[in-house]
Amino acid sequence: MKPGSGCRYVEGKEKRTVPYAKCGCGEEMKPGSGCRYVEMQDKHGKWHKRDTAHEPCHDCNAGVGKVHHWGCDSEDCPVCGGQIMGGDCDGECFNNGTGKIGLKMR
Ligand SMILES: [Zn+2]
Ligand SMILES: [Zn+2]
Ligand SMILES: [Zn+2]
């Protein structure tokens, strides 16, 4: 801090320097965005429409009615209704122990 240098962060003018995290679908997790992976395949090979946000998502920033970005804590499983990431479901309905989940873009 040199004398007279001043602070670069002027209140209210601070620029957002950290970019939004990018989802595997290629979209940035910006407020109001939605995931391009709209369907996911269960372990039996059947495709399901993915869960959408009922209110602006605090976790992945998906807008109302938009699909949660992949990896969001708030996404519910379309098969069992449990939380896909670490909840009741924990991917059980989908990856069949392989860790791989089929995702389809719009
Ligand atoms: Zn996404
Ligand atoms: Zn979300
Ligand atoms: Zn499930």
Please summarize what this structure is.
It is built from one helix and three strands; from the N terminus they run E-E-H-E. The protein is mostly loops.
Q: Give the overall shape.
A: elongated
Strand content: 5-15%
Largest sheet: 3 strands, antiparallel
Structural class, from secondary structure content? little secondary structure
The number of distinct structural domains comes to 1
The small molecules bound here are:
zinc ion
- Arithmetic mean pLDDT: 87
Number of helices: 1
Radius of gyration: 18 Å
Task: Provide the spatial order of strands within the biggest beta sheet.
Answer: 2-1-3
Distance between the ends: 51 Å
Helical fraction: under 10%
Number of strands: 3
Word description of this protein:
The structure is a single chain. The chain has one domain. The chain has a three-stranded antiparallel beta sheet with strand order 2-1-3, with no helix packed on it. Helices cover 4% and strands 11% of the residues. The protein is low in regular secondary structure. The mean pLDDT is 87. The radius of gyration is 18 Å and the shape is elongated. It is built from one helix and three strands; from the N terminus they run E-E-H-E. The site of one zinc ion has 8 residues, from loops.
